[in-house]
Design brief:
By secondary structure, the protein is an all-alpha fold. The chain is built from four helices and no strands. The longest helix has 28 residues. The chain is elongated. The mean pLDDT is 93.
């Protein structure tokens, strides 16, 4: 495969999977309603993104580090809202 095509695919994949979490993050921030979201799911996803970032560092893959870092940030915001919301209910 042409390296340019491979790089393009890497950026396209990273962009799509990262941008997929943007609507949920915006909705959660605006509404502060995360009652239907699972803290365990977002915790596991955040750990997975952090591990993918480390793997990207190991491979020296800028797009893996970039997009997993952004996704980790978006999911971390949601996870924070879930934890804060659950703490306020008790």
């Amino acid at each position: 495969m042409n390296p340019i095509i491979g790089e393009f695919l890497g950026y396209a994949c990273g962009f799509c999977t990262t941008i997929a979490f943007l609507p949920q993050t915006i909705k959660s921030i605006r509404s502060r309603n995360v009652s239907g979201l699972s803290w365990l799911t977002y915790t596991i996803y955040c750990v997975g993104c952090a591990l993918w970032m480390l793997y990207g560092v190991y491979l020296n893959s800028f797009q893996m580090v970039l997009f997993n870092g952004i996704t980790l940030l978006l999911n971390g915001i949601i996870l924070h809202l879930i934890i804060v919301n659950n703490g306020n209910k008790q």
